[in-house]
Amino acid sequence: NYVRIKGMAFNPFSAIGNIMQGLTSNFITSVGGEYFNTSDNFKAFGTMLHSIAGRGDEAKKISKMIRKFDAFSKANDLQFGTSRDIKATQNTLNNLSWFELQERGEIFIQGQTLLAMMYHYKVKVGDKTISLYEGYDSNGKWKSEYGEEPLKDKIAMYKFQQRVKSAVIDVHGNYVREIQNKKNFYWRAAMIFRTW
To answer: Is the pTM of this model over 0.70?
Structure first.
């Protein structure tokens, strides 16, 4: 735990490196086109940047979308093995964790992955086509002017959520499933930052 805290906790260089790796992974994935394309990726990147640059409604909407689609995968490294659930996070300033900078970076890059997938998912509304992301308001509710929500059906919602989880695992690593070697202290020390 000491090594992890020393190497990652409140370490801006580690956080910046993590964000750069995540952005690169999102870009490489977009070029492949399996989950989204480069246009979707750049649009999602811009939306995420605007959300941290003061667009409160946009940040609120992104937070609601992350929760709605269960898109944020969070590792519990200090208490390894006690919780491996995928959770949405809503940190406040009085709830800072040791890895706050890392977690904020993960929210940004995993949120970008979700938004790119939502921009890629097209919904036909009358004679025009919109993205799934455009169809939701800042409260995470489907806008009534677009008719019925395309993911209202539980099966359709489940399939999209699973696709998002699959994309996050493929692009950023599996933070939920434990790596077998990390059960042993020495392997855990050797593989301290490896999650995929």
So the answer is: yes
DSSP per-residue string spanning 120-165: HSEEEETTEEEETGGGB-TTSPBPGGG-S-TT-SHHHHHHHHHHHH
| Alpha-carbon gap, residue 97 to 91, rounded angstroms | 9
Give me the pLDDT at residue 87, please: 41
For residue 102, which of 192, 191, 37, 5 has the smallest C-alpha distance?
5
Q: Are 4 and 192 in contact (CB under 8 A)?
A: yes
Enter the DSSP assignment of 97. Answer: -
The pLDDT value recorded for residue 4 is 61
Taking the CA atoms of residue 42, residue 23, residue 14 and residue 162 in that order, the dihedral angle to the nearest 10 degrees is 110
Amino acid at 50: H
pLDDT the model gives residue 34: 95
Report which secondary-structure segment, H or E, holds 169.
helix 154-172
